[in-house]
Amino acid sequence: MNKYHEILKRIIVSGKTQHNRKGCIRYLLNEQLSLSPVDLLDIFESHGIARKKLKNELQLFMQGERQVQKYREVGINWWDYCGSVLVNSYPTYFEKLPPLIAKINREKRNSKNYVLFLGETGAESNQAPCLSLVQFQIDDGELVLSAYQRSSDANLGLPADIYHLYLMAQQIDLPLKNITLNLGNVHIYENNLERTRLLLDGDETVRFELNV
């Protein structure tokens, strides 16, 4: 069982129940997921991830593209519920990523923490980023990438964020040592619990419902 599937199992076995405006969730607080390149390969090979769509999505984010139609044009429709424009969402912050990556590749300073902050407090929002901070550090010539996620849908959002972080790491001209996600609240929606059990039992055809 890979580390991603392990956290799904822990939520099912040990998670608490909570009701919110989107429905009922089973959740854990303050979990950490530390992934080496081998762990990442294990996850990507054993769990269905829409790699092409997520790569296109990150590229649009980094271009600062806020028009939902542009995402639909590359086959991404999970932003449709936000309306026609993404306000204070990932593009607002990820457009700062290309110059940050260029700076890291230019400097490669072991003593410096390179940080991308996401989510301005009090700003107008129709989908505030769940990923709140990404930190790039260099340790003995290797890249250590850390992220804080305030809220994580373990079925849909978490695999996508893992892959986005991997794609960011691939743009740094250093070998990747590990990616660590600190998850403030990681959860499974009640309507996806049985499907999660099927996934853990080996059913790779399972599809999860989006809760918004």
Automatic annotation (TrEMBL):
Record-level GO cellular component terms: cytosol
GO function term, MF aspect, one: thymidylate synthase activity
Keywords: Methyltransferase, Transferase
The enzyme's E.C. designation: 2.1.1.45
Biological processes annotated in GO: dTMP biosynthetic process; methylation
Pfam families membership: Thymidylat_synt (PF00303)
Gene3D superfamilies: Thymidylate synthase/dCMP hydroxymethylase domain
Enzyme class per UniProt: transferase
Domain Thymidylate synthase/dCMP hydroxymethylase: residue ranges: 3-201
Domain of life the protein comes from: Bacteria
Classification via InterPro entries: Thymidate_synth/dCMP_Mease, Thymidate_synth/dCMP_Mease_dom, Thymidate_synth/dCMP_Mease_sf
UniProt protein name: Thymidylate synthase
Organism of origin: Segatella oris
